[in-house]
Amino acid sequence: MHHSTQPDILLAAHLSVRYGEKPAVLRDVEFEIRRGEVLGLVGQSGSGKSTLAMSILGLLDRKRTKVEGTIKFDDCDLLTLRERELRDLRGRKIALVLQSPLSSLNPALKIRTQLNEAWRAHASGPAADCDSAIRAALESVSLPSSEEFLRKHPSQMSVGQAQRVLIAMAVMHRPALLIADEATSALDVITQSEILALFRELNRTSNRTSGMAILYISHDLASVAGICDRIAILHQGQIVETGTTEQVLLSPRHEYTQRLMAAMPKMPQRPTAAKAAAV
């Protein structure tokens, strides 16, 4: 086995992306994700965050999009892979969780069927293997694996539960990298903090076994700060600052990051204020 010069680097990207003749959406974006780390990628809508996620997964339309550079994942440049090779990688080594769970799940199919399909996409074996994988995945996201639950359709569960089902699908094959693209922006504040805590938990518990790294993409610096080891700030198609969470929050260097920090809501000091706000 050959190792890269830095064995703890899982993904190293340096890329530019443009759609057709338009100016580049991403310009010379450079970042890396270490094994088992949570990297927060923060930027406003339109800054190119989703384009970045899609280019890692090879999901951009190749005819209309020009992606230049390299995306090294486990020593393999993803930009050189064929569609078939990418399909094999997606869901197995790199998984994606999107922001609207109810539109990502198939409304016509029971949860069990959808989890079954997610398992069979990258594994073959007896039904018992599939069932135990489904049980383990549901337990890892604190959902029941009862018959009753598995028979449900997505419309019969809360948005928070639906989001957990999506995350269960994503972690089923113990990917090395989980990409969460605005994965909590459709949720209410309480559910949001539960899902963030879940991501952190998945990252921690998997560290000993599969070391799941997470690329957490969000427009909301406040929400990601609590779970990220490092933060990269994306502004107008470029990464303007990267550092440890503490460093970015306490001493932001770039003027755009400073503006983001200034706009962050201050936490209420007294519990009474928090209670009043919650009512």
Sheet with the most strands: spatial strand order: 6-7-8-3-9-10
Q: Kindly report the name of the CATH homologous superfamily of the domain at 9-98 and 174-278.
A: P-loop containing nucleotide triphosphate hydrolases
CATH class of the domain at 9-98 and 174-278: Alpha Beta
Query: For the residues shown, what is the average pLDDT?
Result: 88
Specify the structural class.
alpha/beta
Task: Kindly estimate the percentage of residues that lie in beta strands according to DSSP.
Answer: 15-25%
Low-confidence stretches: 1-5, 268-279
- Give the CA-based shape: globular
Helix fraction by DSSP (H/I, runs of at least 4) = 25-40%
Number of strands: 10
Termini separation (Å)? Answer: 58 Å
Q: Please outline the major beta sheet.
A: 6 strands, mixed
Total DSSP helices: 12
Radius of gyration, in angstroms, nearest whole number: 19 Å
Task: Based on the coordinates given, report the CATH architecture of the domain at 9-98 and 174-278.
Answer: 3-Layer(aba) Sandwich
Order of helices and strands: EEEHEEHEHHHHHEHEHEEHHH
CATH topology name of the domain at 9-98 and 174-278, in short, is Rossmann fold
Written account of the structure:
- By secondary structure, the protein is an alpha/beta fold.
- The chain contains 12 helices and 10 strands.
- The protein has a domain at 9-98 and 174-278: Rossmann fold.
- It is 39% helix and 23% strand.
- A hairpin with a 2-residue loop joins strand 9 and strand 10.
- Helix 4 crosses helix 5, helix 4 runs parallel beside helix 7 and helix 5 (127-140) crosses helix 7 (159-171).
